[in-house]
Design brief:
The structure holds two protein chains of two kinds. Chain A is an alpha+beta fold. Chain A has helices spanning 5-29, 111-143; strands spanning 45-51, 75-82, 88-91, 103-106. In chain A, 39% of the residues lie in helices and 16% in strands. The chains are: A alpha+beta, B mainly alpha.
């Protein structure tokens, strides 16, 4: 139903923020991982989001100028990007992954940055839920026209 | 002076129900109205079924997003409220027409 456009859009926002939260928790969990399957230490991951295009599949007839069908359909996650910033180097000669000079490469995950990203993701999630509830309240209010 | 642009939203509603056009004969009006009702009931039924399926999938652990289940439940609730309101309107219109004949 085209009636639920804004609810679907907010739903896509919720999925995107949940993916972001999952990636943040993975980053925090792997903050000291010096090994990965592909070799080398863990590198910080970031989600990549893309705005969905508005759909023009409906024959608009004489009411082409309506702005409703030019609004996008929400957000879509198109991939998970790896952060290329330099890794943390620490001097631990007794570590099993130490190189010949005794330095170990730790992941480039900054706990403070991850915590602020987490707060941002949580607030964005709540904002999407609020937007969805407001859209639903508007719909329920419009049903009162007939009362 | 009040601008005529205030009528714009009402005109846009014709886009959502393509059968609701000004018709020429009474039979066309009856057919299009019942097809509107049918279409509305079908979509309400679909939304209910979708909500049921998603709830079952959440309970059995197949889906990971709780918000998908909640969104489907909300859509079903709004659709059912709308259907019930339309049903009340239809019944009241029917009653008035029947009362018209008995006076």
């Amino acid at each position: 139903m085209a009636l639920f456009n804004s609810i679907n859009t907010s739903g896509s926002g919720l999925s995107a923020e949940q993916l972001r939260m999952d990636i943040i928790s993975n980053n925090i969990a792997n903050i000291n991982s010096t090994r990965t399957e592909a070799g080398g230490p863990y590198r910080r991951q970031k989600p990549v989001f893309m705005a969905k295009e508005p759909q023009f599949t409906i024959d608009l007839g004489p009411f082409v100028r309506s702005p409703v069908w030019r609004i996008g359909q929400g957000v879509r996650a198109v991939g998970i990007d790896t952060d290329d910033s330099p890794l943390r180097k620490e001097y631990q000669p007794n570590h099993p992954d130490a190189d010949k000079d005794g330095y170990v490469l730790f992941p480039n995950v900054n706990i403070v940055v991850e915590m602020t990203d987490m707060i941002e993701a949580t607030r964005a999630y709540e904002a999407n839920v609020t937007a969805m509830r407001s859209a639903k309240q508007m719909m329920m209010k419009s049903l009162e026209i007939g009362r | 002076m009040i601008s005529i642009n205030g009528l714009q939203p009402t005109q846009e509603m014709f886009r959502y129900s393509p059968v609701a056009k000004p018709t020429s004969s009474a039979k066309n009006i009856v057919d299009s109205f019942s097809s509107i009702l049918n279409q509305g009931l079908q979509e309400t039924n679909n939304l209910e079924n979708q909500s049921d399926t998603l709830t079952r999938m959440l309970v059995s652990g197949e889906i990971e997003n709780i918000h998908d289940v909640m969104i489907a439940a909300e859509k079903a609730e709004v659709a059912i409220n709308l259907t019930m309101n339309i049903r009340d309107k239809v019944i009241r219109a029917y009653d008035e027409i029947m009362a018209m004949g008995s006076r």
